[in-house]
Predict the 3D structure of the following.
Amino acid sequence: VNTLTHSPHAHAPISVSKVMATVMLCLLPATLYGFWLYGWPAVFLWSVAVTAALLSEALVLRIQDRPVRTALLDGSALLTAWLLALSLPPFAPWWIAAVGSVFAVLVGKQVFGGLGQNVFNPAMAARVMLLISFPVEMTLWAAPTPVTSAHAPGFAEGLDITFGSAQWDAMTSASLLGHVKTEFTRGTDLFHSLPGFFSTDAAAWGHRAGSLGESAALILLVGGLVLIARRIITWHAPAAMLLGVALPALIAHAVNPGRYLDVLPHLLSGGLMLGAFFIATDPVTSPNTGRGQFIFGLGCGLLTWIIRTWGSYPEGVAFAVLLMNAATPIIDRYVKPRIYGRDQRGRALAVEAGK
Amino acid sequence: MKFLNRFKLRGGVHPEGRKDLSVRQPISSLPLPAFLFVSLQQHIGAPASPAVQVGDRILKGQLIATGQGTVSAPVHAPTSGHVAAIGDYPAPHPSGLPVPTITIEADGEDRWLDAETPADPFSLSPEEIAVRVGAAGIVGLGGAAFPSAVKLNISRRSGVKTLIINGGECEPYLTCDDRLMRERAFETIEGIRLIQLAVGAEEALVGIEHNKPEAIAAMKSAAAGTNVKVIVVPAMYPMGWDKQLTRGLVGKEVPAGGRSADIGVLVHNVATAYAVQQAIRYGRSLVSRIVTVSGGAVGKPGNLEVPIGTPAQALFDACGGFRETPVRLVMGGPMMGHEMTATHIPVVKGTSGVLALTPAEIGQPQPAPCIRCSTCVRACPVGLLPLEMAANIRASDLNAAVDLGLKDCIACGSCSYVCPAHIPLVHYFNFAKGELAARERSKLKQEATKKLAEARNERFERIAREREEAARQRAAKKAAQEAAKKAAEAARQDEAVT
């Protein structure tokens, strides 16, 4: 018999690795769909990201003399790399994924003290670092060429795209948000830049250039809903983030449809779905309470819309999330649950005179 | 029809009930053990003081120890026989430390003391009911073991509108209240009406979780024609937390630091109501209770009516012994119960269950880092931030934990139960509470020492002052005498001159 035991003498059948595994399971369909759309290069890029993350995690744990196996098996490094890979251009060179993953694990997480200690979402921190450091590689998108289509890169060709120096200029295409931004700088409004480039159908099915996570927006939405149903995440942050983008988009588009994108293109583009359901819900870097998470999500959404609309980068999810990550301690300080028998400020409720 | 304020309920978890192990077993008795170990500290408050001597012959229900002070309860003989020993015996407490205990050797006759009983219990005055409840040694049988008469008196004086009877039994495994309500519903309802009479409550509401349909049906039919209402509440843990039940049934919260009576509510457990009925109707003191014997390691789990003081081993023996070696023995439920260090620990008035658990059931793997998932925040029925409190306690910042509401924590274990990182949150909180209590004690001690030192200094000063005063008075007296002498001398000389 253990000499130091304490209640409760029972535990829910849940663990950190089960939480991570459920999240990954919900990412899997979107990822496989992305693999089908972009073929071998996407598979290679994902594999490089995951391998680099696991290796750097193992290295750090080794240096710190902490048990490597248990920490690797919790799945957090794998999940970070996975999310990063979903946000990268699928035909990016291998070192983009490698540098990003190493940065995410080392600087994004372990420098702060490991799992649970980091202030910023590691995957988004890495993505922003990559975007600022390697703007060319990070904004070169390929049009989807499903594995079954004629121009799909084969295995060898895929190896060459990811690890070699294959020229795939013929396949480049702009993402919707990038295209709109570029056209604006040339003075073209949405009435002229959008037709022929965006259709809701194609966007919904992912038949347009983008990251793995952008193309599979609807599948990610379903995955996110499953996470909510499984009670791994709550609805607060995702709903608020979508609302934060949709609401200003709705108003602005109604005011000036030539200047401001409509709600649907916003919701189905960029990393919004991935961000709302899988990034803004990162437990470590988001607030503790439902109300706090709602405020956090709303902030992420509004900032995303602002950066997309007026910023110099076409996409703003990663920036928005990092900014709100920085605000999380403040939100947690001011938004706390009301304690039983006390008011919101922690004072005891008054004893009723009349009962 | 009472509207259930479900939306006001917060937090809570849904642990695996495991009640099916024992719920179909009717309440049965067990062979009377040869020795009973009756603890004198079975309740919150001062321990009882022995009223018998070694060798005395006693009857079942006879007073063997009297309550001490305002918050205490007397203890009665659970069977007839003689007092074999008065001394220390291990208590059902995690420490396993010994407490004053009266050991009774049973004579096997189990003969009750003749008691005087009222012809009509409902003709008794409220004060009389409270006196009888106090004399019968009844304490809260839900686990807290607070002397019931004290609660009745406080409530009667401050006025109570609603009597709430707790039939929640939200702890997993435990089925003793469920069986009691199924099998002894009429007695329980009568007990409820007696408590209602004792405090003058307008209404009496019995809250029963919806996972006990048989108990609900039995209680409803027993309550028909009375003004006791049975209300079905959602099955979740900790529904049986008295303040949670209050929030659910009357939609009001007990102010922090206050009592239920502050909002016109009194909460008692169903088993307490039954004990009250037995005491008032039949003059029977609280000398036995229903205990659930369960857990994966128990051969044939069941519900036993057990004399107070029976060693846990006798309960397990009566339930088919162990089918496998248990890794943990628990007294109470798995969420809030204490570990028993040995099976010779005796049953006390607050014992609702004894459990023998297997490794698969306790499931406490190594803790992992907190991922701030805030599952604990959602689970907390009080509205605390367990993860932040634990982080502060880890960093030895107990004051920060107190600011976050540590003292409002009820140690229900919901947070620890759901934590995916298996962090022993309740353990942290209990440690911090103990540490704070120790600090408080040492502060009081320091203050007392300081006061004593100050008093000593003052006394010395006073003595010095008094001495000075006396010396001064003596000097003044002397001076006065001198002056008088001189005056007399002068007068004489004057006389002589003239």
Remarks:
- The CA atoms of residues 382 and 410 of chain B lie 8 Å apart.
- The mean pLDDT of chain B is 92.
